[in-house]
Design brief:
Number of strands: 18
Structural class: alpha/beta
Bound molecules: pyridoxal-5'-phosphate
Distance between the termini: 18 Å
CATH class of the largest domain: Alpha Beta
Number of domains: 2
Strand order of the largest sheet: 3-4-5-6-7-8-9
CATH architecture of the largest domain: Alpha-Beta Barrel
Strand content: 15-25%
Shape: elongated
Amino acid sequence: MPAEALPAALRLDLDRAALAHNWAALDRLSGAARAGAAVKADAYGVGARQAVPVLHQAGCRDFFVTYTAEAADIVDLVEPGSIALLHGPLAAIDAQWAKAKGVRQVINSLDQARRWIEIGGGLCDVMVDTGINRLGLAMSELGDPLLRQLDIDVLHSHLASSEEDVPMNALQLARWQEARSLLPHRRASLANSAGIALGAAWHGDLTRPGVALYGGVPCKALVGEIRQVVRPMAAIMQLRDLAAGDAVGYNSIFVAERPMRVGVVALGYADGYLRCWSGKGSMISKGRELPVLGRVSMDMTVIDLAAAPELREGDWVEVAYDLPAASAISGLSQYELLTLLGKRFSR
Ligand SMILES: *Cc1c(COP(=O)(O)O)cnc(C)c1O
């Protein structure tokens, strides 16, 4: 029997309608530009093979991944030419694979441009660094004759502080516009999720939302537009009845003040439910809140079942994981909350 067929005690419920809704909302907010989708890091942990068909069905035609292996994971799900590889051709073999499969490389440096041209080139994207100082060609390199040999589909840049109202956004916009005037291209792209909310000037022809597709709300302008997409579900492994004075978990940081019924849930920090949730997180059953008691362990978390006394071993509870709220409680970013969710969740 393949391991995937064995029963799991953890699963990620994906609300496909909410995912399609979020893409459509971001596409509408992108105005005259089309919204693509960042599906790197296994669609932010949601499961790229699950998310991509939903996004495609909703109308999305541009998908962004980081590595060749991530492109290979979804290349059979979309039309040739609709995946772009953000880290670009790291070696000749990446370049050759992408060319053979019709995956667009995002050229981030003169070295990568040379690598792409050496294997025969073809349609590609270009990333220009306009101030974040990560990947991308420097503005001062844009006159290099090597770049004239590229056939550029999308000319990208990436915003450093799109979720904040800071002068950096206008500065990067101006540099991106200058880059657009220097390098011939078919389409231009600057905005991530929060960048979409900055306004039409930042939209270009194509936007690249990621976190907001999956339920993240990175800025105030997106409040009310975005729905929760991911619901982590975990099984109760065991019930316990505590007496007053009994302690729960490592280091006994929770001590029962009165008799109580608790559940041991199959979720721990090895699954991405980090120790910062100790004594702070909660699970949900039929709308009732079941607080986390004591310290989160590697594979287990204990919850108070006072609000749901009918629950039994084998019943499932939902982990409270509305991203803006979960971020405020845990101190983790909404991006981390998504990408932390581990391999033991069935997707
Ligand atoms: C990850 C990424 C995005 C998506 O950003 P979000 O903030 O998640 O919307 C867009 N563009 C690039 C280049 C990225 O690396």
